[in-house]
Design a protein that fits this description.
- This protein is α+β, with helices and mostly antiparallel strands.
- Among the domains are: about 70 residues, Phage tail protein beta-alpha-beta fold (3-Layer(bab) Sandwich); about 60 residues, Ribosomal Protein S8, Chain: A, domain 1; about 60 residues, 2-Layer Sandwich (Ribosomal Protein S8, Chain: A, domain 1); about 60 residues, Ribosomal Protein S8, Chain: A, domain 1 (2-Layer Sandwich), CATH 3.30.1370.
- Helix content is about 25%, strand content about 35%.
- The protein has 14 helices and 31 strands.
- The strands form 10 sheets. Strands 18, 24, 25, 30 and 31 form a 5-stranded antiparallel sheet that branches. A 4-stranded mixed sheet has the order 8-9-11-10, covered by helices on one side. A 4-stranded antiparallel sheet has the order 26-27-28-29, with no helix packed on it.
- A hairpin with a 5-residue loop joins strand 26 and strand 27.
Length: about 650
């Protein structure tokens, strides 16, 4: 059909169809001149501004009319539904009538429309209405002239169902793809160009199996890299691969920017890895790339710092890839940004200061015990090796055999009933075989841990010394009477966690988390003997600031433990009042004070690190030779409290077990 504008001389008006056979020859001549004029106007429109600007915000019916005049095609459409749609087309040169007609598919697609050409007439329909429209059937490859067709594709070497499942993402939303299992064929209903492209992809994949028997098919969509370039690259990589398991067949789809891969798991995995790298590296479209090899800093952490520049104002074309094996950075950015990037990298890639921490974790215990009671034994006074002693023939409750108690080794009181008076422990008692003891033990020091830690600035250091104790957490009994026991494991021992931060004035901020735990006295970690286990936990968590080389002490975690033990003669010890002559009761109260001493030292150079290492080696050598000494009063001095002076933790007149004085 032909079209005549309502308002002649304007391309923006709507057009009314007329019957060319009802017009005279003169009218036909004028229409022909009008057609040529419209075509010339369209050409001028596409060549404005030196061939760089074309159609801007034209209503869709006017654009269709322009293309109809240029391509000599007849169109049928609903003008009322299309006049609200606006079209902008930009072209680098003046398109030919054939190029204008090919451009129609793209114009219609962005407006959710499709064209169906049949019998020399092109119908413009909504894309959703095309599915129910019967287009021409094309049985094989050839020149497709219809906008919307039904294509039959016979597959020879691959299952049609496999192709449908894998290639469906390559089709448009309005396409219909079904499988004809009996003929192993695909039936595709889509627009002309999409059907032709899909048939070409199937033909490229549908080859004799050869080295690809029982292989897999996979579609990989690319976001940034070009499917065409990626196809060429992968084919070069895999074409010389003699390993059958890593061979690959690659077909690119430029419309969806995807790759279709056929191969085995090893080859597919390698292809995915390469495509991922290509797709990432292509994000930086500035075309500038530099590699920075880091000497001290961690590439992954530095890359995260640099990535923050992307969110600046204005945002930069920056992409940073951290290569962990080589500890390098691959940076893509604008040429003008590299000076600032290099400056940041150089300031981050420095030798970090370290902190050497000497720690001492100790318990100061104060035990006070009182043993009262009567212990009957049969024996006599004698002299052994020139010393007065009391020899028994097996006391009450003993296993028999002779036992000796040298008088010079026992304090307290002893009373006997056999024979005459006995001199014992420098004191004279009656000769009956009974002992009343009142023994008092004062102080002791227990070194729990003496670790030496070296850690980077702002990095956490941790040390654990102890054991893992099994505990019964739950017991279940099923209806059949079967018992199921759940076991948990609890860590018992000493844990010290420290995070140092060096300040500008060389002071050190320490985040300290210290825990000390142990089994309550008398318990065992053997599940066969005891299920429930009680532990004594003491924890200290704080943050302090210390000068370089200064010692601090943290403590005051005091625990009390009371123990009552009774030993008696069976039956006789249960007699009221008189039973005290046949039993012994011991009561013990123990106070334990946990103290933590810390001495941090900043290490900035190799010389300082070597000095710290030599000091540690000397202490280790002394320990091996048996001269290990921890002098609490010299190496770990408590800070002076105004008005009190320095404190000495060692009891006067005594040397704690395990410690040596200078």
């Amino acid at each position: 059909m032909l079209y005549r504008p309502k308002n002649e001389g304007s391309l923006q008006g709507s057009f009314q169809p007329i019957d060319p056979f009802s017009q005279a020859a003169g009218l036909m001549s004028r229409l022909l001149l009008l057609t040529l004029g419209l075509f010339w106007a369209g050409q001028v429109c596409f060549a404005q501004a030196g061939g760089s600007t074309n159609l801007r915000q034209m209503d869709l019916p006017s654009v269709i009319e322009l293309i109809a005049k240029a391509a000599h095609k007849r169109f049928i459409y609903d003008e009322d539904k299309l006049k609200a749609k606006k079209v902008t087309v930009l072209a680098s040169n003046s398109p030919s009538p054939q190029e204008l007609y090919k451009m129609l598919d793209s114009i219609l697609e962005v407006n959710d429309l499709s064209a169906v050409e049949e019998g020399g007439v092109v119908r413009i329909l909504p894309s959703g209405g095309i599915k129910g429209d019967n287009g021409p059937v094309v049985l094989g490859p050839g020149s497709l002239t219809q906008h919307y067709v039904t294509r039959l594709i016979v597959v020879k070497y691959i299952e049609a169902k496999t192709l449908r499942n894998s290639l469906s993402p390559l089709l448009g939303k309005d396409a219909i793809l079904v499988v004809e299992d009996g003929a192993n064929a695909l039936i595709l209903k889509d627009n002309r160009e999409s059907a032709e492209r899909f048939a070409a992809i199937v033909a490229a994949l549908d080859r004799p199996e050869g080295d690809f028997a029982n292989s897999s098919l996979e579609v990989v969509a690319l976001e940034n890299a070009s499917a065409k370039d990626a196809e060429v690259m992968l084919n070069k990589v895999f074409e010389q691969n003699a390993n059958r398991g890593k061979r690959l067949r690659v077909v690119g789809d430029t419309r969806t920017n995807s790759l279709i891969l056929i191969g085995y798991p090893d080859g597919l995995e390698q292809a995915r890895f390469l495509l991922k790298r290509m797709d990432q590296q292509n994000k930086a479209q500035a075309g500038n790339m530099r590699v920075y090899s880091l000497k001290n800093a961690n590439a992954d952490k530095v890359s995260k710092v640099l990535e923050r520049f992307r969110s600046g104002n204005p945002p930069t074309q920056l992409q940073v890839i951290a290569d962990i094996p080589s500890n390098s950075l691959v940076v893509f950015s604008d040429a003008g940004d590299f000076d600032a990037i290099e400056n940041v990298v150089n300031q981050l890639d420095i030798i970090r200061a370290q902190v050497f921490i000497q720690a001492l974790i100790m318990e100061i215990k104060l035990d006070r015990s009182l043993d009262l009671g009567v212990e009957w034994q049969a024996g006599k006074a004698t002299t052994i090796s020139g010393q007065d002693a009391f020899v028994t023939a097996g006391g009450v409750g003993s296993t028999g055999g002779a036992r000796t108690f040298p008088a010079t080794t026992t304090g307290g009181a002893a009373v006997g009933v056999l024979g005459g008076p006995i001199t014992f422990g420098g004191q004279t008692f009656s000769s009956f075989n009974a002992f009343i003891k009142a023994t008092q033990t004062d102080s002791s020091i227990d070194i729990l841990s003496n670790p030496q830690l070296l850690t980077l600035n702002n990095e956490e250091a941790e040390i654990k010394v102890g054991e893992v104790v099994p505990t019964l957490s739950a017991t279940k009994v099923d209806p059949q009477g079967n018992q199921t026991t759940s076991i948990d494991y609890k860590e018992v021992g000493v844990m010290l966690r420290i995070s140092p931060q060096i300040n500008s004035d060389n002071s050190i901020e320490l985040k300290i988390d210290q825990t000390s735990s142990n089994l309550v006295q008398g318990q065992t970690n053997n599940l066969n003997q005891q299920g429930a286990i009680t532990t004594l936990n003491r924890a200290l968590k704080t943050k302090v600031v210390v000068n370089d080389g200064q010692t601090i002490v943290l403590g005051g975690l005091i625990s009390d433990e009371m123990t009552d033990v009774e030993a008696k003669t069976p039956c006789l010890g249960d007699i009221p009042i008189l039973g005290w002559f046949f039993k012994t009761r011991t009561s013990t109260v123990r106070k334990t004070n946990l103290l933590v001493f810390l001495t941090p030292k900043v290490v900035r150079s190799e010389e300082e690190l070597a000095q710290v290492s030599r000091s540690a080696k000397l202490k280790l050598r002394s320990a091996r030779e048996g001269h290990f000494r921890v002098d609490v009063t010299n190496e770990y001095k408590v800070p002076v409290i105004p008005g009190e002076g320095a404190r000495d933790l060692t009891p006067k007149g005594e040397t704690p077990a395990g410690l040596k004085r200078d």
